[in-house]
Amino acid sequence: MEIKKRVLVTGGAGFIGSNLVKGLVEKDHDVTVIDNLSTGREEKLSDVKDSIKFHKLDITDDILDRIGNISFDCIFHMAANPSVEFSVRRPLEVDMVNTHGTLNMLEYARKSGSKKFVYSASSAAYGETDCSNNTEDMLPLPLSPYGVSKLCGEYYVRCYDSLFDISTICLRYFNVFGEFQDPDSQYAAVIPKFITSALKGEKLTVFGDGKQTRDFTYVKDIVRANLLAMETDINGQSVNVATGGSISLNQLIDAIKKGLNRPLNVVYEDVRDGDIKHSCSDISKALEVLGYRPEFDFEQAIKKTMDWYEEKIL
What we know:
This is NAD-dependent epimerase/dehydratase domain-containing protein. This protein is an alpha/beta fold. Helices cover 39% and strands 18% of the residues. It has a domain at 6-177 and 218-244 and 280-295: 3-Layer(aba) Sandwich (Rossmann fold), CATH 3.40.50. Strands 3-2-1-4-5-6-11 form a 7-stranded parallel β-sheet, with helices on both faces. It has a two-stranded parallel sheet with strand order 7-10. A two-stranded parallel sheet has the order 8-13. The longest helix has 22 residues, at 91-112. The radius of gyration is 19 Å and the shape is globular. The N and C termini lie far apart (42 Å).
């Protein structure tokens, strides 16, 4: 039987955060959410609003002053500015949120005596690599200010693990997709953009030749990895969370075309600055330290995702 825990989720009204909050509520944990609602939406939490505590806060605010000195069993730090493209245009703004905001949350964890800190890191830290699979012991070489900012967050997390009595773990996500991902946000990822454009009969814009690959990972697998990370005794490490496979954008388009059974208007444009060509993960460490393996293959997950968007849009 699981022990009920007091947990805090930053960015809990966002895409991944709201899915995690629901997973935590299902496990009967005591959940507090903070989100500044710049990209998150309270309606994503409407079905659990009576089971959580919600605070409209920015992660750069004085959290101790705003929510009090609460010793959480686990802090899931998910709040971030998630856009590579935006970070190229406005790097200082992204760094303030992703680096300073993470340090601010670590300070709250230290001062409040919180026990565990699970950090949502990013595969963008790896940059462009020659390897077929990115492993955690590779030298990170991020290509964008976003990747740099998320890697800086990892270093701060590890620093606090070694200096203070906080158990930490960094989960490096690879191209997460699924239900509740906002297709209209300025930070929207490729899958919700493509699906909603296809459903509306609009063009699908590919930056590059479409041969670039990603390790697309279903959000429910990400949630499960976070729940496992909360329980693990392993600390001070970074762990890839993905599928261990790779899908090209052209293959993604074919899957959407097949799933929706309609022709698509695909337009190819120049590659954007900061975008990497290939990204794929080695997840053997996740299996070893978390007991994690993906439960959903790409075909299952993309079908579930398309069904969800189709219900919302049509």
